[in-house]
């Protein structure tokens, strides 16, 4: 009898009986709504508009989708079933990209952008649950190299304030291009993923530092040279400003054995760039959906760099040339990608994984089934990665 | 010679020589720009639009302002000199209210809204300066009365982590209607105001708790009865959930002599409502631009309530009837308003101030010269109020 109740309860939880308003909507909003089959209904009142479309992240479907005008001046459309997770979206109102007034906004594509959250049946690892919660804190610090005040977010684990003599390992966790330091908590729910893993005893309590991944005034990153210069400016900040700031302001274990760096997409590229330059600072490395650029010199397009062959002897200035030495030095190399990501990502990461494994480099490779170059991939990545850190 | 340099430097700092991009814009944006005379130039690319206007908060000017289409499809307008400070704004694109893609967004009017920051010459009390910084922390807590997870922001003063045996007084600080718990830090710069005051030795280090001022599912607050019910739900949260949560999670001095409540507009109304019901919890009370509702019973419109006469004997169920007793019990009653606020605010607050002072109730009345029902008024208010707390 109890089993039967449990099964019914599980099914009820897994399949919402009716359309529900997205968790990303502002209080009181009745749109967008997600149907039980994960199709999404969007709505915008624009009586004078001639055309209204909705478009968004890959997981939303092909798009843009034409919306239809009702007699009340409200335009609506129901898009095909979406991939679970968080998707950026926007309206094209007579061709102008605008946000949905019903949605909270999230930093993506370099601007504030609407978002919709499609529940994944049975997945509660990123939910706000009744477990002890860590705290996300704002950290301002003055950066001499960029002559700017910089803003980072810092997760301290449950118990941090209650145990003022305990010191913790540190994970630096970076967002992707066009996003900022708020991405991992607002879109990624990193704080809840860590809370839930720590409560389940699957992950050691750690401090997570989410910094803003831009440090260069050079905005165009079209060539490998420009990208390397931009990453170099961020490397300077991370090594000589961010890490000392965090080690001074928080009770860290300030050595390489207790420091990890991870990042998604551009943040994954930055992670490989910075950690492989500074093995004295990091023992754990993770690149989440980060195209692997084995050689960042020259004025070639970045897209060409993504297609470079990966030679484990020469890549990253020879960082992997001595596989046995690399395996002794680093406790973890973690690479991941979603199966629905664009081919250029999957190919670049796949080539690196194949070449490194063939050369005897130890690594963990994680594929997120059915998810795109979007946050559901990176939530799953963090959930897989965090338990492997600091053992 | 040195004096002369100083004067020139001051003038140069006070009068920007050229238009500057608003501090509220996203990185890389070149708009909106503020001219030295505080006029603001707005810009939006919308080649197919038929009309584009810009409108916003009172301090921006009358508006909406018609924008003019250039041959490149970019619409522009320069609005009249604005009041210094933070102003919400939006475009009307063929009649639809949309955000400026160049702007960060801020929770105002119940939706994410663009904002522009007009510098006030010589005012650096809310600037991010090279002084010790406190930390803003996210606090989640489960509310039994509303059956929801609630989200508050908590400022801990500089030195909080370094002195794990020190306990601090607490200021509860509330936003206005249509805003949320992020308003006081993102729009108000409360954390920098406190940092600067504490660094100057003008204010005692304190914890500042900024909660979300909504606790009722009743969204319509059109009548006094409905408003009272909504405020009552928030009162229940503040007294029986928020205060115990904060006293458990932070090193507070958990008595009335070390607890203050302040709020702006709706938050000021909530402050009077809650503190006057619970003198056992609060010794300091401040209402910033909060219309004073002496009697919240009945089905009358709120606007009518704003125009009620203030009888110091009967108002707030007789809380002020014994002036000498009130003066002994409370260490501070603080009321403020901006001189450019709408008449209904100034009249309501002015009547209460006059009546209370005539009856012998001690209070501090602060007028912000030249500012509207906007954040520059409330920044000045906090800068005036905080030094008066906890002596």
Short description:
With 391 residues, chain A is an alpha+beta fold. The first copy, chain A, has helices spanning 2-14, 183-186, 190-199, 224-249, 266-277, 302-306, 315-318, 323-329, 343-358, 375-385; strands at 20-21, 33-34, 40-45, 52-56, 65-66, 68-69, 74-79, 85-93, 96-98, 105-108, 111-118, 135-143, 148-156, 170-174, 207-210, 259-264, 284-288, 332-338, 364-368. In chain A, the strands form three sheets. The first copy, chain A, has an eight-stranded mixed β-sheet with strand order 12-13-15-14-16-17-18-19, with helices on both faces. In chain A, strands 4, 5, 8, 9, 10 and 11 form a six-stranded antiparallel β-sheet that branches. Chain A has a five-stranded antiparallel β-sheet with strand order 1-2-3-7-6, with no helix packed on it.
State the CATH class of the largest domain in chain A: Alpha Beta
Termini separation of chain A: 42 Å
Question: What oligomeric state do these chains adopt?
Answer: homodimer
How would you describe the shape of chain A? globular
Structural commentary:
Two copies of one chain form a homodimer. Chain A has about 400 residues and is of the alpha+beta class. Chain A folds into two domains: about 20-120, Immunoglobulins (Immunoglobulin-like, Sandwich), CATH 2.60.40; about 135-390, Alpha/Beta hydrolase fold, catalytic domain (Rossmann fold). Helix content of chain A is about 30%, strand content about 25%. Chain A is built from ten helices and 19 strands. Chain A has helices spanning about 1-15, 185, 190-200, 225-250, 265-275, 300-305, 315-320, 325-330, 345-360, 375-385, and strands spanning about 20, 35, 40-45, 50-55, 65, 70, 75-80, 85-95, 95-100, 105-110, 110-120, 135-145, 150-155, 170-175, 205-210, 260-265, 285-290, 330-340, 365-370. In chain A, the strands form three sheets. In chain A, strands 12-13-15-14-16-17-18-19 form an eight-stranded mixed beta sheet, with helices on both faces. In chain A, strands 4, 5, 8, 9, 10 and 11 form a six-stranded antiparallel beta sheet that branches. In chain A, a hairpin with a 4-residue loop joins strand 6 (about 70) and strand 7 (about 75-80). The longest helix of chain A is centred in the middle third of the chain and has 26 residues, at about 225-250. In chain A, about 50% of the residues are buried.
């Amino acid at each position: 009898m109890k089993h039967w109740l449990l099964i019914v309860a599980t099914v009820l939880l897994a399949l919402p009986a009716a359309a529900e308003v997205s968790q990303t909507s502002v209080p009181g909003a009745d749109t967008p709504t997600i149907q039980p089959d994960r199709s999404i209904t969007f709505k915008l009142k624009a009586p004078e508009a001639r055309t209204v479309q909705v478009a968004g992240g890959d997981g939303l479907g092909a798009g843009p989708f034409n919306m239809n005008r009702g007699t009340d001046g409200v335009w609506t459309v129901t898009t095909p079933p979406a991939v679970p997770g968080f998707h950026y979206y926007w309206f094209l109102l007579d061709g102008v990209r605008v946000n949905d007034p019903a949605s909270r906004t999230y930093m993506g594509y370099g601007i504030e952008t609407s978002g919709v959250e499609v529940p994944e049946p049975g997945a509660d690892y990123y939910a706000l649950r009744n477990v002890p919660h860590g705290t996300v804190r704002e950290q301002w610090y003055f950066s001499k190299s960029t002559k700017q005040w910089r803003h980072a977010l810092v997760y301290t684990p449950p118990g941090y304030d209650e145990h003022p003599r305990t010191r913790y390992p540190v994970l630096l966790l970076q967002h992707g291009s066009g996003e900022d330091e708020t991405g991992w908590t607002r879109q990624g729910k990193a704080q809840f993923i860590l809370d839930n893993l720590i409560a389940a005893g699957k992950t050691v309590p750690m401090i997570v530092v989410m910094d803003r991944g831009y440090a260069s005034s050079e905005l165009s990153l079209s060539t490998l040279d420009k990208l390397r210069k931009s990453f170099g400016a961020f490397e300077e900040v991370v090594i000589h400003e961010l890490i000392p700031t965090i080690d001074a302001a928080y009770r860290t274990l300030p050595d390489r054995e207790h420091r990890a760096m991870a990042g998604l997409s551009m943040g994954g590229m930055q992670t490989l760039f910075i950690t492989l330059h500074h093995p004295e600072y990091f023992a754990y490395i993770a690149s989440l959906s980060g195209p692997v650029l084995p050689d960042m010199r020259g004025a070639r397009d970045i897209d060409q760099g993504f297609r470079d062959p990966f030679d484990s002897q020469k890549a990253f200035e020879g960082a992997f040339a001595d596989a046995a030495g690399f395996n002794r030095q680093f406790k973890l190399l973690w690479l991941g990608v979603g199966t629905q990501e664009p081919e250029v990502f999957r190919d670049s990461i796949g080539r690196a994984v194949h070449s490194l494994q063939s050369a005897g480099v130890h690594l963990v490779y994680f594929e997120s089934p059915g998810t795109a170059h979007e946050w559901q991939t990176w939530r799953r990545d963090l959930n897989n990665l965090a338990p492997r850190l600091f053992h």
